[in-house]
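Tokens in:
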């Protein structure tokens, strides 16, 4: 029971931070490009309660991967809808990758100033060990969210980028896939080798690149969070 509580506490803060800032980034850029919908609906806030999706939050606690309620964006309000849609859509993944980079820098500081972690049982260890695991999980979850949301199929952010880049007719065809895009990707993940051959190696390589010498902390965090004990 103690381990379950500790795992939730390690995942909850960085996980909520990752999905909240992902959505706020979308809303912030939408307002900059002319659409105030997110602000008018009170979604340009760092309060995670305004962004929580019940199923997405439960998935975060159970599987270490979740999502928030999408920030509403009226693309018709954008000054240049097709072009600006690209930047608004990229805002979320770029925010996650920025958070991953910030997490990597914090981990390198831990390595630089104190080795891996203080001795277990010491006051420093009791404080820094959970903190290090949280930062390690933050790096992983933000890389995962950043890259996964770039899947080039709507409703994922990458799909909306593709819609913004395509000519009008092809853009409409791509947009028509939005109601089915999430299901299509889930089917590909569970019934093909797409995750094993594409997503997992890509995510792992980016994590390895960012973490550098602090990779051991990320691995320790994920081993602990994915353990059955």
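Residues out:
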């Amino acid at each position: 029971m103690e381990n379950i509580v500790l795992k939730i506490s390690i995942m909850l803060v960085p996980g909520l931070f990752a999905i909240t800032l992902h959505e706020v980034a979308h809303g912030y850029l939408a307002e900059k490009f002319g659409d105030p919908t997110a602000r008018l609906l009170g979604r340009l806030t760092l309060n995670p309660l305004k962004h929580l999706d019940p199923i997405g939050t439960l998935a975060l606690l159970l599987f270490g991967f979740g999502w928030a309620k999408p920030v509403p964006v009226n693309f018709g309000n954008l000054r240049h809808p097709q072009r600006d849609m690209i930047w608004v859509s990229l805002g979320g993944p770029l925010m996650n990758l920025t958070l991953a980079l910030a997490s990597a820098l914090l981990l390198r500081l831990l390595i630089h100033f104190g080795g891996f972690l203080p001795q277990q049982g010491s006051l420093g260890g009791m404080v820094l060990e959970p903190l290090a695991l949280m930062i390690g999980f933050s790096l992983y979850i933000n890389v995962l969210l950043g890259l996964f949301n770039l899947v080039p199929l709507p409703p994922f952010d990458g799909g909306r980028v593709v819609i913004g880049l395509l000519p009008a007719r092809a853009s409409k065809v791509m947009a028509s896939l939005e109601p089915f895009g999430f299901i299509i990707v889930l089917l590909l993940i569970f019934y093909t080798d797409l995750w094993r051959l594409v997503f997992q190696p890509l995510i792992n390589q980016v994590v390895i690149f960012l973490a550098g010498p602090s990779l051991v902390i990320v691995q320790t965090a994920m081993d602990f969070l994915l353990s059955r004990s």
